[in-house]
Automatic annotation (TrEMBL), chain A:
This is Lipid II isoglutaminyl synthase (glutamine-hydrolyzing) subunit MurT. Pathway: Cell wall biogenesis; peptidoglycan biosynthesis. Forms a heterodimer with GatD. Coiled coil: none annotated. It comes from Nesterenkonia sandarakina. The active site is at D350. The lineage of its organism: Bacteria, Bacillati, Actinomycetota, Actinomycetes, Micrococcales.
From TrEMBL, chain B:
Transmembrane segments: none annotated. This is Lipid II isoglutaminyl synthase (glutamine-hydrolyzing) subunit GatD. The lineage of its organism: Bacteria, Bacillati, Actinomycetota, Actinomycetes, Micrococcales. Gene3D superfamilies: 3.40.50.880. SUPFAM superfamilies: Class I glutamine amidotransferase-like (SSF52317). Belongs to the CobB/CobQ family. GatD subfamily. The gene is gatD. Its EC number is 6.3.5.13, 3.5.1.2. It catalyses: beta-D-GlcNAc-(1->4)-Mur2Ac(oyl-L-Ala-gamma-D-Glu-L-Lys-D-Ala-D-Ala)-di-trans,octa-cis-undecaprenyl diphosphate + L-glutamine + ATP + H2O = beta-D-GlcNAc-(1->4)-Mur2Ac(oyl-L-Ala-D-isoglutaminyl-L-Lys-D-Ala-D-Ala)-di-trans,octa-cis-undecaprenyl diphosphate + L-glutamate + ADP + phosphate + H(+); L-glutamine + H2O = L-glutamate + NH4(+). Pfam families: GATase_3. The keyword Cell inner membrane does not apply. One of its GO terms (biological process) is cell wall organization.
Length: 437, 249
C-alpha cells in the first residue's frame, strides 16, 4: 500500500478533533441523503480517519465513563443508570441510537459533540455488546464497569458461554477504578478473582429469590449454595406487585417501578449499585429511589401498549433464562397469549433453547396464537409440554390481525424474539402510538 | 387398565452437559413412551451418583469444554457398565460432547489427549474452527435428519462404526468428509442439537422400539396422540421439518 502524505488520515490528524467532527458530520449528512438509516457509517469514517477521537473525547469528561455489558438487560439497565445519574443532577452522555458498537458510540458522539470535540456532559454511560466491548475498552479504559450476566443466547455467535465470560473479564480488567458484578451469576462472580487493584462491588438476590432467577447451569440441578456469596451492596429482597423491596447499603427500601417484570426489577438493583459506586458519598439516596421509580422501560423490554382499548404487553424473550423469567413474571390468568419466534441472525439461529424452557405454566389458559419463522418449532415444543394452542400462523401480520380480532376484550401479551418484536412493533403502529425507534 | 410397564431412561450428566437444550431429547422420549402406554422413568446421573440398576435407554448431551473436563473421570469410572449395556444392545443417543467422549480420544488444540470411554470407534481433534449452523443430512435408516451443530472438535470415524448420515447442508463430523454422526449396534451418535429428537422422531422411535424389544420382547404399541384440540403431532412435526430445511446455514 502506498503512503501518500496527503492521505485523509494525515489530514484529519492535522486538523485534530475539529476535522474529525466535520468529516463525521459530512458522512452523516451523506448517509441521510442516501436514505440510509444506519447510524454506524459516520462513526466508521471517523474511526478510520482519526482512531483516537473516541478516547480523546471521552477522557475529557470530568466523571469519566461507565460501561454496561452482559448478555441480557443491557439496554434497560443502561437507561436506568442514565436516568439515575440525571436525577443526581449530572449531565449524561449515552449511546441512545441502539447501535451498541464502537462505531455506534462514535456516531452518537458526533451527534452531540461541539465543534471543538468537547462533549457537553459530566459522565458517559455506554451500553456495549460483549464482542465489541473488548475492542472498545482497549481504546477507552472505563472508570467503572457494570457486568450483568452471561446467558446462552449468544452461544451461536461466539461459540461458547465461557468465551463470552472471557470477554466480560477483559472489560473488567481494563476498567480503571471499580467494577460492579452480579453476585448470582457464577461466571460473572468469578471475574473478581482475576482482578488486581480495582474495587469490586456486587448486586444480588435474597436467598428466597434465587430459585426465581435460575442461571443456565442451575436449570437441571440445584442452585449453588449461598455460602460462597460475597456481601452485596444492593440486594433485591422481594418482588412485590409493581415494584420491589431492596436492601441498599444495609437499609431496606421499597419502591414501585414503571418498568415491569422480575428481571427488570433485578436490573434496577444493578443500576443502583453502579451509580452508588460511581458517586460514592455524594449520592443523594432519596433522589436515587425517586428516579428509579420513574424509569420507563427501554424499547420493547416489558413494554405496555394500548391497542383497540385493551392493554397489550410485548415481552422480549431471547434465551431460556429470559423466557423462564418472562413466564414467571407475568401471571397468565385472564390474558390472551401469543408467542412469536424468529430465527434470524439477531435472534440466534439455533432453536435448541426452546427446549430448556418449561411451558407448563401456560397449560391452564393455553396459547391463542403461535407465529414467527419458527412457529412450528414452538408449536411442537408446546405439544410436548401438553399446552393447548388455538392457531399456528408463521406470517406475523396475518397472525397479529387474527389474534387481535379473535381476542377483543382481553388483555393481551406477546412473547417475542428480537426481530419478531421489531416487526410486531411496526405492525402495531397501525393500531396505536408506538414510540419510534 | 393394564399394568404400567416401566421403561428406564438414563440421562448422563445433565448438570454439566445440558447447555445446548439437549433436555428436549429426554422430554420427547418420555412423552412418546407415555403416548404408547409405557411408563417412562427418568434417571439423572451426575458424577459420583449411584448408577441405576435398570437401564433401558441411555442419552447424553453436549456441554462446555469445562463441563467435559468435569465428567470425564467419572465417565471412565462407569465405562465398564456402559460397555456392558452397549454390547447387550441397549439403545443409546449421544450428542456432541458425550458423542466425542464415547469415542477413543479427544486431542485438544494444545495437544493434550483426553481419553474417551471407547465404546464408539472414532477419534476427535480440537481445532480453531468452530462449525456452527443448521444441518441437513440424509440417512438410509432414518430419512432426512435435521438439526443444528456448534462444535470445534472434529471427529473421524474408524472402520468399526458407520456414519449416521451424509451431510447435504452444513459440516457434520468434520470439515473434510461429509459424514454426520455415527451408528454402531443400537447406538446413535450425533453432533446435532435442535433438540435432535423433536424434529427427528424416527430416531426417537428407533430408541423406544429397541428398548421395548429388549425389555418386553414385543413390537412397540401404536402412538396415541393425547390432545385432540391441537393439530396432530405428525402434522406439526412435518411443518417444523419443512421450515428447518429452508432456513439458512
Amino acid at each position: 500500500m502506498s503512503r501518500l502524505p496527503s492521505s485523509p488520515r494525515t489530514v484529519a490528524s492535522a486538523l485534530g478533533s475539529v476535522g474529525s467532527v466535520l468529516i463525521g458530520r459530512a458522512a452523516r449528512t451523506v448517509t441521510k441523503l442516501r436514505g440510509g438509516g444506519g447510524s454506524a457509517f459516520p462513526g466508521l469514517v471517523v474511526e478510520k480517519l482519526d482512531p483516537h477521537f473516541l478516547a480523546r473525547t471521552l477522557h475529557r469528561l470530568p466523571r469519566g465513563v461507565i460501561v454496561v455489558s452482559g448478555t441480557n438487560g443491557k439496554t434497560t439497565t443502561t437507561k436506568m443508570v442514565v436516568e439515575l445519574l440525571q436525577g443526581q443532577g449530572l449531565k449524561v452522555f449515552t449511546n441512545r441510537s441502539g447501535s451498541n458498537f464502537t462505531r455506534g458510540v462514535v456516531a452518537s458522539i458526533l451527534e452531540e459533540v461541539r465543534l471543538s470535540g468537547k462533549l457537553d456532559a459530566d459522565i458517559a454511560v455506554l451500553e456495549l455488546d460483549e464482542a465489541h466491548a473488548v475492542h472498545f475498552v482497549k481504546a477507552v479504559r472505563p472508570n467503572h464497569s457494570l457486568l450483568l450476566n452471561v446467558m446462552r443466547d449468544q452461544l451461536d455467535r461466539f461459540g461458547e458461554i465461557d468465551t463470552t465470560a472471557g470477554m466480560l473479564r477483559t472489560i473488567a480488567q481494563h476498567t480503571v477504578e471499580a467494577v460492579v458484578l452480579n453476585r448470582e451469576d457464577p461466571r460473572v462472580r468469578a471475574i473478581a478473582q482475576t482482578l488486581g487493584t480495582q474495587q469490586v462491588d456486587y448486586f444480588g438476590l435474597s436467598e428466597s429469590l434465587r430459585s426465581h432467577f435460575p442461571s443456565d447451569d442451575d436449570f437441571h440441578s440445584a442452585p449453588a449454595s449461598a455460602a460462597d456469596h460475597p456481601h452485596a451492596d444492593v440486594v433485591l429482597e422481594q418482588l412485590i406487585e409493581g415494584g420491589g423491596r431492596f436492601t441498599v447499603d444495609g437499609e431496606s427500601v421499597t419502591t414501585s417501578l414503571t418498568v415491569n417484570g422480575a428481571y427488570n426489577t433485578f436490573n434496577a438493583a444493578a443500576a443502583m449499585a453502579v451509580v452508588r459506586q460511581a458517586l460514592g458519598d455524594a449520592v443523594d439516596a432519596p433522589a436515587l429511589i425517586d428516579s428509579l421509580s420513574k424509569v420507563s422501560p427501554a424499547f420493547g423490554r416489558g413494554e405496555s401498549l394500548t391497542v383497540q382499548g385493551r392493554p397489550l404487553d410485548l415481552v422480549l424473550v431471547k434465551n431460556p433464562s429470559g423466557f423462564r423469567l418472562g413466564l414467571s413474571s407475568f401471571a397468565p390468568g385472564g390474558v390472551a397469549t401469543m408467542i412469536a419466534i424468529n430465527d434470524n441472525y439477531a435472534d440466534g439461529r439455533d432453536m435448541s433453547w426452546l427446549w430448556d424452557v418449561e411451558f407448563a405454566s401456560l397449560a391452564e389458559e393455553g396459547v391463542r396464537m403461535i407465529s414467527g419463522v419458527r412457529a412450528y418449532d414452538m408449536a411442537l415444543r408446546l405439544k410436548y409440554d401438553d399446552v393447548d394452542f388455538d392457531a399456528v400462523e408463521p406470517d406475523l401480520k396475518l397472525a397479529l390481525t387474527r389474534f387481535l380480532q379473535e381476542n377483543p376484550d382481553q388483555p393481551a401479551r406477546i412473547f417475542c424474539t428480537y426481530t419478531a418484536m421489531l416487526a410486531l412493533r411496526k405492525l402495531l403502529g397501525a393500531y396505536t402510538e408506538v414510540e419510534a425507534f | 387398565m393394564a399394568e404400567p410397564r416401566p421403561i428406564h431412561v438414563l440421562q448422563l450428566y445433565p448438570r454439566d452437559m445440558n447447555i445446548y437444550g439437549d433436555f428436549g431429547n429426554a422430554l420427547v422420549l418420555q412423552r412418546r413412551l407415555q403416548w404408547r402406554g409405557y411408563e417412562p422413568i427418568l434417571h439423572s446421573y451426575d458424577p459420583e451418583d449411584e448408577f441405576p440398576e435398570q437401564v433401558d435407554i441411555v442419552i447424553g448431551g453436549g456441554g462446555q469444554d469445562s463441563g467435559q473436563d468435569k465428567i470425564q473421570q467419572d465417565l471412565l469410572r462407569i465405562g465398564e457398565k456402559l460397555h456392558t449395556l452397549a454390547n447387550s444392545g441397549t439403545p443409546m443417543l449421544m450428542i456432541c460432547g458425550l458423542y466425542q467422549l464415547f469415542g477413543h480420544s479427544f486431542r485438544t488444540r494444545e495437544g493434550r489427549e483426553i481419553k474417551g470411554v471407547g465404546i464408539l470407534d472414532l477419534r476427535t481433534e480440537g481445532t480453531d474452527t468452530r462449525l456452527i449452523g443448521n444441518v441437513v443430512a440424509e440417512s438410509k435408516e432414518f430419512g432426512e435428519i435435521l438439526g443444528y451443530e456448534n462444535h470445534s472438535g472434529q471427529t473421524y470415524l474408524g472402520p468399526g462404526v458407520q456414519p449416521l448420515a451424509r451431510v447435504t447442508k452444513g459440516a457434520g463430523n468434520n470439515a473434510k468428509d461429509a459424514h454426520e454422526g455415527a451408528r454402531w449396534k443400537n447406538i446413535v451418535g450425533s453432533y446435532l442439537h435442535g433438540s435432535l429428537l423433536p424434529k427427528n422422531p424416527a430416531i426417537a422411535d428407533f430408541l423406544i422400539a429397541k428398548a421395548v424389544e429388549n425389555r418386553f420382547d414385543e413390537p412397540i404399541a401404536a402412538q396415541i396422540d393425547p390432545s385432540g384440540a391441537n393439530q396432530p403431532i405428525e402434522e406439526l412435526t412435518r411443518q417444523a421439518r419443512a421450515t428447518a430445511t429452508r432456513r439458512p446455514r
